[in-house]
Amino acid sequence: MSTRKLILWALVCGVLILGAGTFKLWQTSGSDARITLLQLGDSAVLGDMTVSVLEVTKTQSSTLVEVTMIGVEGADASSGWRMLSDGVVHEALDAPADVESPCTTTKQSEVVECVVAFTVSQGTPTIAYIRAGQQEQWATTP
Description:
The protein is of the alpha+beta class. About 20% of the residues lie in helices and about 35% in strands. It has one helix spanning about 5-30; strands at about 35-40, 45, 50-60, 65-70, 80-85, 90, 110-120, 125-130, 135-140. The protein is elongated and about 80 Å long. The N and C termini lie far apart (about 70 Å). The relative contact order is 0.21. The model has no long low-confidence stretch (mean pLDDT about 90).
């Protein structure tokens, strides 16, 4: 094959790649993906559970998040909670012994107010709850 034909094929392939990239950008530009941050005290409904983050307290040994939950009888109340801090997503831990109301189980018709514990966080954490394929996040402004 001659050099001219190779250059021509390279140009055709480049144009095809450029066209595919343009189509992909056009395809994704219509998506309605947006992230909303709720404020402390705001409620969110995820599947059959209604949850709210009331307060975030930092101690020497952990970050304690006071939450309310209602909607499901006997579900693990600490499951589904996450904390984004220092660029890392942290899972909920077992609450320290001195916590008055650690999260254990939820109730269907009674609001459960409890505390979810996380590792010590630096900076301002974002608290997230994931259930039924949905996620909501709360900003914890200082």
